[in-house]
Amino acid sequence: MKTNSVISSVVAVCAAAACLFAFVPAASAASTQETVTSTKSFPAYTQVRKDFTAEATSTEVDSDASWGDVESLNVPQTQSQAEKDAEAQKKAQEEAAKKAAEQTQSQSQAASRSDSRSTLSYSDSGSAASAGAAASIDRAYSLIGSSMDCTALVTKALAARGINFHGWPEEYVNVPGGYVVTDGTLEPGDILIYKYTNGTNGGVHYDHVALYVGGGKAIHGGWTGGVVALAGTLPNKLTTVVRIP
């Protein structure tokens, strides 16, 4: 009985082995028939890689090489407030000097145009002019060519002899220390007052005032062109003569 059981077991193992060997080839064959192979075509791509080692630039320098200093750098320079103030002051002084030079030149040119300028002064005016009159005459001559009206001229001439007065032309009849001449004579230093000149004095006011300097001439402010000039006495327009001793 025991022997039969062993034989039965051996037979079963042999049968199982036989079935296994029969199944594996069949499975392999089936697997081979069901496999799908897929391929994909990619375009050719070529990339050139740089040789960074070969293209590197050397930064080696000599140990004693000069790299420059602060003075050699091109750095924009800024001014301090003190430097700006000094520069502005210098510019203002230069402009003032330029204007002064231009003014001096203008006055010189105006004076040179006065061909009829007299040389009368206290020393050669004779007994007909007092020291005060001569001082007024000298001052008036120095203003020939200057731009000013008739009243400003006479006021400056009076100031040269110590008299402080300014007003409209007809008001110069009231100059301190003066008196109206009634005999029709003229002396150097006399103040000539005109009325109703109809603007012939070159000014905007119809009345006019001038300073007599002798020789039938008077110095007029605000004359043609608005400047001080030496001209005649305009006897037809002269109305009042004021004399200061």
Structure description:
The chain is of the alpha+beta class. The chain has a domain at 126-243: endopeptidase domain like (from Nostoc punctiforme) (endopeptidase fold (from Nostoc punctiforme)). The protein is built from five helices and six strands, in the order αααααββββββ. Strands 1-6-2-3-4-5 form a six-stranded antiparallel beta sheet, covered by helices on one side. Strand 3 and strand 4 form a beta hairpin. Helix 4 crosses helix 5. The protein is rod-shaped and about 195 Å long.
Q: Could you name the CATH class of the domain at 126-243? A: Alpha Beta
Detail the poorly predicted runs: 27-32, 113-120, 122-127
Provide the CATH architecture of the domain at 126-243: Alpha-Beta Complex
- Secondary structural class: alpha+beta
Report the mean per-residue pLDDT as an integer.
74
Beta strand count: 6
CATH level 4 superfamily of the domain at 126-243: endopeptidase domain like (from Nostoc punctiforme)
Keywords: Hydrolase, Protease, Signal, Thiol protease
InterPro entries: NLP_P60_dom, Papain-like_cys_pep_sf, Peptidase_C40
Signal peptide: 1-29
Biased composition (Basic and acidic residues): 82-101
